[in-house]
Design brief:
alpha+beta, binds flavin-adenine dinucleotide
Length: about 400
């Protein structure tokens, strides 16, 4: 008697659209679950924003108390909490080490790979995914659907992929030259998915400088405190041709969007009366810059900011108050395409707890395309990895259960 050998079932196919940190993490989870995985990306290579993030030191995560870490996500923290708890800052570091990249923690708790850049990590990650059978289709831009199939514009003309399960990880809507142009928002809206409008997060301030400021372009400003609404930032920033940029300014983006005025404390470690005491000596024949340098040890860029935003200093009856509370005149945030990240995206109400689109069963979403925001400091990559993993694992569970 011969026992019939059952045909081995074809593995289920998973499609990931978007090969940034979120999409690659989802690909890893689905490949680990035994699915055949294809990652399609509009750009000629994947992970371009990840590589760009590594240009100035790839800040992977933040080594800090979990509750503090979660508080950076503000009102979206409860939504992201189970996902980040399942892949927290410690897990991010272990993941990087497992890919052969030792990490270190800087003085502020920011965690970087020792190599600082993203390329060795990405190379090792792509090798791992390749070994797991993940296939890549690059230069494939997702255009929408034809029935249930995903339609792509590709170098070989239009192509379609019909998969058993899909994860969209299409990023936000900034630095569009790196691939995330936000064009997916309209595609999802036509299918009834609630997508919050994009807005710049972690963006610079637009300032129309007087010519006096030109020689200070590219000067870093350290040891100050910025205030906007309830947000206070001791981070550094830079005077640039276009305005003010850098981590210290970026963290105020949300308050600025909400209409809060921005003020700068040039002497945050000195109480007002100490500033007043130091300025009680008459200026005599000293120029204002020399007087301020001697009395307060203000450096040239801080003096220039004071003169730019503080109006004429002669005749100012309350100079100490101006120094402690200098109003920053600006014309809003820099355009969204320049922002490090965006607010807005697929609304929490549009997805299940497993990040599946309620209106499109079998399609999951992850990464910056979800409607959360966080300051710089490694939170963006951490949450992209955590939501990518969560969506990938949920998608694997969903396909398993829909087979049963
Ligand atoms: C200059 C800069 C520095 C940064 N530094 C840091 C940092 O140090 N630490 C940190 O935590 N965060 C940093 N970030 C933010 C971080 O890089 C992003 O938040 C993160 O990459 C988001 O991951 P994602 O996978 O969701 O999206 P993305 O990385 O944007 O990936 C989305 C992918 O989807 C593809 N795609 C988009 N639309 C389509 C389409 N229609 N069809 C096919 N493919 C499509 C894109 O080509 C892209 O590859 C930085 C960002 C910038 C711009």
């Amino acid at each position: 008697m011969t026992i019939p050998v059952p045909d081995r079932p074809e593995p289920k196919r998973a499609l990931i659209v978007g090969g940034g940190p979120a999409g690659l993490m989802a690909a890893q989870s689905l490949a680990n679950a035994g699915l055949g995985v294809v990652v399609a990306d509009a750009m000629p290579t994947v992970g371009r924003k990840f590589l760009m993030a590594g240009r100035s030191g790839l800040n992977l995560t933040k080594d800090e108390d979990f509750d503090l870490f979660m508080s950076r996500f503000d009102e979206q923290a409860p939504w992201l909490l189970p996902m980040i708890r399942a892949f927290d800052a410690v897990a991010v570091q272990n993941w990087a080490r497992d890919l052969g990249q030792e990490v270190f923690t800087g003085s502020s708790g920011r965690v970087f790979p020792k190599a600082m850049k993203a390329s060795p990590l990405l190379r090792s990650w792509l090798r791992r995914l390749g070994d797991a059978g993940v296939q890549f289709q690059t230069g494939w831009k997702w255009l929408g659907w034809q029935g249930d199939a995903f339609v792509f514009d590709t170098p070989e003309g239009q192509q379609q992929i019909a998969a058993d399960v899909t994860v969209l990880a299409l990023g936000g809507a900034s630095w569009s030259r790196l691939g995330s142009d936000g064009s997916w928002a309209e595609l999802l809206k036509t299918r009834g998915v609630a997508v919050q409008d994009f807005a710049p997060a972690n963006a610079g301030l637009d300032v129309d400088w007087s010519p006096h400021m030109h020689r200070h372009f590219a000067s870093p400003v350290k040891g100050t405190a910025l205030l906007a609404g309830n947000d206070r930032s001791r981070g550094e920033f830079v005077v640039s041709k276009r305005g003010l940029e850098g981590g210290g300014i970026y963290s105020l983006s949300k308050a600025v969007r909400d209409g809060a005025a921005v003020t700068l404390d040039l002497m945050p470690d000195w109480p007002s009366d100490r500033v007043a005491q130091a300025l009680s000596k008459p200026r005599g024949k000293l120029t204002w810059p020399n007087y301020l340098r001697r009395a307060l040890r203000l450096n040239p860029v801080k003096i220039a900011l004071l003169m730019e935003f503080g109006g004429p200093l002669s005749g100012n009856e309350n100079l100490p108050a101006t120094i402690k509370n200098l109003p920053i005149r600006h014309s809003g945030l820099r355009p969204i395409d320049e922002a490090i990240s965006v607010a807005g995206g697929v609304a929490k109400t549009a997805v299940t707890d497993g990040l599946m689109l309620k209106d499109i069963p079998g399609v999951f979403v992850a990464g910056e395309m979800l409607d959360w925001e966080a300051p710089t400091g490694g939170y963006l990559i951490s949450a992209s990895l955590a939501t990518g993993r969560w969506a990938g694992e949920s998608a694997a569970d969903w396909i398993k259960n829909s087979n049963a």
